[in-house]
Design goal:
285 residues, 11 helices, 47% helix, alpha/beta, 8-stranded mixed beta sheet
Amino acid sequence: MEPTVRTLAVPGATLHYEVRGSGPVLLLICGGIYDAAGYAGLAGLLADRYTVVTYDRRGNSRSPLDGPPEPQRVDVHADDASRLLAEVSPGEPAFVFGNSSGGQIAVALVERHPEQVRTLVAHEPSLLMLLPDPEHWESVIADVERAYRDGGVGPAMETFGAGLGMGGGESDDHEHDSADQHAGAADPEMLKMFARFEKNTDFFVGYEVPGFGRWVPDVDALRRSPTRIVLVAGEKSAGEPPHQAVHALAERLGTKAETYPGDHGGFGQEAEAFATRLHAVFSTP
């Protein structure tokens, strides 16, 4: 199913977003270097039951900033998602799924605008400061900042990947593998997508990692929220920081994280299973 492509002006940027299907609104929020195309497979599987909305986050791909790059804040991205929901689902709470740093944005959306979200499924949000040794993660983030300042994107991504210990980091191998499930190696659209991802890498490690890496959710606000919050960890990502972080958040909220197929990029690798699990959650009163 080909999406309808639209844009939305928000303070400081213009968002590219895509709409598929019909039914209740389901917003998919990507993380890392991803953009809307990375969710094409999952969106296509759900568009027979939902109005599925995907978008490029500000500063990435086809969502340019109004000015030069600047440090990114989770709350600003959450307000972008809120404005997008106000556009596509005015007055009606939506379903939301977010992965990785997109999961952080989704959690912040529930903190700041709980009336807009009926049910949230947050898949391995990268909440590094909830891990047992936040001082270590502060040091990792500072090392990434230093590497970017001194050497640019390459050394910074190497430092970030080594710090996470995820075989390339949240924005590299997992996400490329996930997208590859839905496109052939010679597909021109896939080649365009990967070219965008490569360009996004600089913005991600230089301007997003510091602010997102240090962000801590407001657990009390989440507890007060009327939104149903479902936290999800990957079956194959045990031991990795985002997997540990989602369990840490679940413990603080007095709940347990569910286990979905695949690893940090399971929504792409196991798209059919994810679509089935997500529909089961969203269709349960």
